[in-house]
Amino acid sequence: MTQDDTRRVLLSHGAGGKIMTELIESVFLANYGSQNVTGDDSAIVNIGLDKIAFTTDSFVVDPIFFPGGDIGRLAVCGAVNDLLTAAAKPLALSVSFIIEEGLDMKTLEAISESLREAANEAGVQIVTGDTKVVPRGSADKVFITTAGIGIVLKPDVSGSAAKQGDKVILTGSLGEHGAAVMLARANLLENESIKSDAAPLVDIVLGLIDAGCQVHAMRDPTRGGVASSLNEIARQSGVSIEIDETAIPVNPSVAAACEALGLDVMQVANEGKMIIIVSPDDADRALEIVQSRRYGKDAAIIGEVGPAPPSRVLVRTAFGTSRILDIPAGELLPRIC
Amino acid sequence: MTQDDTRRVLLSHGAGGKIMTELIESVFLANYGSQNVTGDDSAIVNIGLDKIAFTTDSFVVDPIFFPGGDIGRLAVCGAVNDLLTAAAKPLALSVSFIIEEGLDMKTLEAISESLREAANEAGVQIVTGDTKVVPRGSADKVFITTAGIGIVLKPDVSGSAAKQGDKVILTGSLGEHGAAVMLARANLLENESIKSDAAPLVDIVLGLIDAGCQVHAMRDPTRGGVASSLNEIARQSGVSIEIDETAIPVNPSVAAACEALGLDVMQVANEGKMIIIVSPDDADRALEIVQSRRYGKDAAIIGEVGPAPPSRVLVRTAFGTSRILDIPAGELLPRIC
């Protein structure tokens, strides 16, 4: 109850950028205390001798079906990939639906089937859930919130653990989810040449851990794209990160779509990609493991971790110049996930 | 994709009654498999040697502030009490917000403060969260989904574990949450004589477990009220339950409000009450423990568990007659929690 009373929540407060960070810090962290809430996508809870990773995300994507996926697949992949960022093996998910009265039952069934298929693919069980129905006009079709728990296999993997000299692996090409949803929304996707990348990255991450690779930090670049994720890691770890723009895999039709839509592909959401910060000694071996997996074929080493503050991300362009890659400020793509 | 394609989700599909049960069984259990999803409010996940209780609920209550609470307090109490039904000590919560663009920032701050206070009262930590903002008109003010994890202290407490001869303890008077929200919505609450009972029941349940009471089943009678909860236990356990109507504590102003609104207080939502099914040998001792706690002063033994099927709940009325207490069929109170 501070400051002026005309302040309101804006779309940009949910966009994964600077303004969202400010909201989280001023409203939520101020109340729950930064000792409990880290900047990571999963929290770690100690139970007995085990470390449990625990995460949640709400999904409000519009449209609810899009090339390459739907809100159900997204809700599973989001929770699973967040658990993986903590080097945890995903075990169980909860699924909570908020449904607008009047939704087609067959739509709900299709989403439910998609949830099950994605959970099967990820090897997790959906163990509990909730259903709320609100009157027509009080919600838009359906929102899904998943939470997930997993067992941490490699403690101390965290956005704050990147070290100077580490290599930055990106597991595949950028921007497909965001571009697919935006084009679907604008009815510009007749040929479906661009599909969402929504995928659970279990075998990539567990493969690296099983092989004993020295992974230090992971982040799945969803809202705000790799621009947000890299900046979060730089800030949390107190390092700089230097990215080689020419090394970043981008599907040409996604690049064209982003140009047409006026979007920087580095700021566009992905739902089946992981940024993996790994010790330089293990980088080549880790890249090989990632590339051997279904969702990692186009993986590349896209940069490396530089020295301590100013905690920024630099991009070396194809022209040999460098630019600062900033965290997007406001709303890029409302209801992208 | 079966049956006719004109079927739609109705408000009654989210009401905690028969139609919701049918939806859950036909759409969700059919997909996720009944081996994973039980009829209990919390799932149990085995991790190492520990049994972890895991639960989720979405909150869409309207209005978001009401006498005795708000959507934030509700979201914490709901998750905490669901964990307690599994005889689990609540440890950590996730909180996910879906916010309508334009919400007053001070409203969000007040909800966030309320969440923190309720979490402190319950002794749980809010460890992770998410924030989505949707355009104006795509949601109504704010929806909150909490998930919770806890450690199971007494395995095998379940809705399916009630036994013939067990006593039924109700921890306090019925219907206060539902009546308070309905009256607030109708602007009929000038004097606020009726307040929501939203409360975390940690010390009641942990008190019983610490004392070694033979608790067999617990259920918090939220949507659908004690009518739904008792029928769920009867069905899951394959027993009948007989309730003495005259033993049920009801605040007279709540009784009057329910009569005025045409509601059966047995079907009205509570957010700070627990039905506790306990071995007859421990019933008096358990009642004393419950009554010694802040939220259990008005607790009473309201009935007992009868013989095997027909899995129904009978109410002995003040007039000496008996009636079958059925699970409510459709929507009683939309957006009550």
Q: How would the global form of chain A be characterised?
A: globular
Low confidence ranges of chain A = none
CATH architecture of the largest domain in chain A: Alpha-Beta Complex
Number of helices of chain A: 8
Mean pLDDT of chain A: 91
Radius of gyration of chain A: 19 Å
Strand order of the largest sheet of chain A: 9-11-8-12-10-13-14
Q: How much of the sequence of chain A is in beta strands?
A: 15-25%
> How many beta-strand segments of chain A?
14
Quick synopsis:
Chain A is of the alpha+beta class and 337 residues long. The first copy, chain A, has 8 helices and 14 strands.
What does this structure look like?
Two copies of one chain form a homodimer. Chain A has 337 residues and is an alpha+beta fold. Chain A folds into two domains: 11-152, 60s Ribosomal Protein L30, Chain: A, CATH 3.30.1330; 167-324, PurM-like C-terminal domain (Phosphoribosyl-aminoimidazole Synthetase, Chain A, domain 2). Chain A contains eight helices and 14 strands. Chain A has helices at residues 18-32, 71-85, 105-122, 176-185, 202-210, 225-237, 252-261, 283-291; strands at residues 43-47, 50-59, 65-66, 69-70, 88-100, 125-134, 142-152, 167-170, 215-219, 241-244, 275-278, 300-305, 313-316, 322-324. Chain A has a seven-stranded mixed β-sheet. Chain A has a five-stranded mixed β-sheet with strand order 1-2-7-5-6, covered by helices on one side. A two-stranded antiparallel ribbon of chain A has the order 3-4. In chain A, α2 (71-85) packs parallel to α3. At the A-B interface, α1, β1, β2, β5 and α3 of A face α1, β1, β2, β5 and α3 of B.
